[in-house]
Design goal:
Belongs to the SCO1/2 family. The chain is of the alpha+beta class. It has 6 helices and 10 strands. It is 33% helix and 26% strand. Helix 3 (79-94) crosses helix 6 (190-198). The chain is globular and about 45 Å long.
């Protein structure tokens, strides 16, 4: 019951940020949030998604003492590319310590983000450890709910595909016990990410 209350409080805090207008492509202007007590994400410990080689990967088996997790999509015009560049920069900024950090990109657009497409997408970004994952919509929704991530398909007739996806833009720090330690707002640069993460390595 105590864990459930902590999870509910965590999600409420994130949704409060969204309610203030920090949804979609807008950058959350508040500072990073260090979770007072690590929050165990049971769904992460059980979820299995597909990587860019179309192989099923249990999320709790992904290597690295810490993971930087971001939910986005390959057709995202701005915040997603920026987040992936910042995450890769954080790994570089940490130097040898960064060997224990794994950046992870999880799609919120399974309709378009196939393993093959994500394989091409991640090649655009620096670093060799970036892991991109996708899966069935039900699997991704299950995981999004656990993190308090909100995404919404929005009609965009001017685009070739006819739609885009609005979504929250938080970066999550997870440890190797499937616990959220800290969150960063989208748009946090690599140096700031590294400074916040270093204390956990």
């Amino acid at each position: 019951m105590k864990i459930l209350k902590e999870r509910i409080l965590f999600v409420v805090i994130l949704l409060f940020g969204i309610g203030l207008g920090f949804f979609g492509w807008k950058v959350w202007k508040f500072r990073s949030v260090r979770i007072q007590k690590p929050i165990f994400v049971e769904e992460w410990s059980k979820a299995v998604l597909k990587n860019t080689q179309n192989l099923k990967i249990p999320l709790n088996k992904i290597p690295g003492k810490l993971k930087l997790v971001y939910f986005g999509f390959s057709h995202c015009p701005d915040m997603c590319p920026r987040a992936l560049i910042d995450m890769s920069s954080a790994v570089k900024e940490l130097g040898d310590e960064g060997k224990n950090l794994t950046p992870i990109f999880i799609s919120v657009d399974p309709e378009r983000d196939s393993p093959e497409l994500l394989a091409k997408y991640v090649k655009q970004f620096p670093g060799e450890r970036l892991i991109a994952l996708t899966g069935e919509k039900s699997e991704l929704d299950y995981l999004q709910n656990a993190f308090g991530v909100v995404s919404k398909k929005v009609s965009a007739p001017q685009l070739e595909e006819g739609y885009t996806v609005d979504h929250t833009v938080f970066i999550y720090v997870l440890d190797d016990q499937s616990r959220i330690l800290m969150t960063f707002p989208g748009g946090t640069d690599g140096k700031t990410l590294a400074e916040g993460i270093r204390k956990f390595l």
